[in-house]
């Protein structure tokens, strides 16, 4: 049995009961080392197979092999395993490589939701997730999505906004939104949402400081109704208040 | 103190520890009756103020008044309180009506994530949330978002897809997507995700049965890479498998 588990942002308090139970039931834990560290209180003395970043395929195959050999395996992702996590790759491998493994995906709190609660209530109206990583997606596809989402006045959550090798992507995304969103559109920046080192900032499209952003940061750009009051970012749903 | 709490889809197993703790600490619980019923095991003999559907403003004001009078109040929403829930309205009321209340938003698992795990891994690539309720949003705004999202090849999650008074909205949404998404695009339908009566179906854009859908249903429409295999809906992220 292979549980593909979203552990949420990192703190045990934002994990679901179902995720916790699955980790406790597992014989062995597999995951990127930052994530296995976050849940070490639950893992106890179970064997942990850690792999580094960008070793997704290796990590998934290790988990499938253990499960096929009869182990109950917990493959952990931060956030939700089904959102830029490991669930898709596991299910692709199962269907294309003839593994005989039962897989159960256990959902978790994705970064946008955790970040939204920190900022106030910026996601109250239609919103989208866009990853700025072009490791697996052609950049023109990403550009088209940014423009379409800005033109249709979605709130936009940027995942993987910045890292070594693509410092300029977020700046380019802001240039692409500029024709559609006002310069004063509120922008929320949350680093390490839901973890002990959590930090957040409120700014605007025109005053954005890209240096605040790294790979562990989520950036939320408001729609045309979003406002900031008393340090909180709110997107009204349309109630007459 | 007012906790605005997302309880997740409904089952206690998909609630976070933080949400559970806040409910346990509260003096009084406020919420739409379906949601207060879902958490009755946690509520014990605390007073519960239930209100009916479409009484959002009344419910929020009741919660604020209790909190201003010194009670610790848990205002519960299903899913995440910050996604089409009560967090935005509470924060709007606090800033516009001069309530003196400390508010803490406690995030929860929204329906798309719970539904995604049931269907497989349909949300592995960029996706958006669109509510088809035009009670608070002009219908032309919704139409523009549907077209933009379909044109830019987002996976699309439809919230509030159908109810009495707007039976035709989902059918219209499918007509609007037709120029951009292939007729064979996979569609996942999840009713009562994460609850005991959960049901789900897989179909396609052209074979969609709108009669399966009600207000407690989430509809997920794939992107051009989404496929169904072995009863699971998967949107590949782009790994070479």
UniProtKB/TrEMBL annotation, chains A, B:
Positions of the Tetrapyrrole methylase domain: 1-208
Protein name: Cobalt-precorrin 3 C17-methyltransferase
Organism field: Vibrio xiamenensis
One term of GO molecular function: methyltransferase activity
NCBIfam families named among the record's database cross-references: cobJ_cbiH (TIGR01466), PRK15478.1 (NF012022)
A GO BP entry: methylation
Keyword Transferase: yes
SUPFAM superfamilies per the UniProt record, alphabetical: Tetrapyrrole methylase
Keywords: Cobalamin biosynthesis, Methyltransferase, S-adenosyl-L-methionine, Transferase
Pathway assigned to this chain's UniProt record: Cofactor biosynthesis; adenosylcobalamin biosynthesis
PANTHER family recorded: COBALT-FACTOR III C(17)-METHYLTRANSFERASE-RELATED
Cross-referenced InterPro entries: 4pyrrol_Mease, 4pyrrol_Methylase_sf, 4pyrrole_Mease_sub1, 4pyrrole_Mease_sub2, Cbl_synth_CobJ/CibH_dom, Precorrin_MeTrfase
One Pfam family from the record: TP_methylase
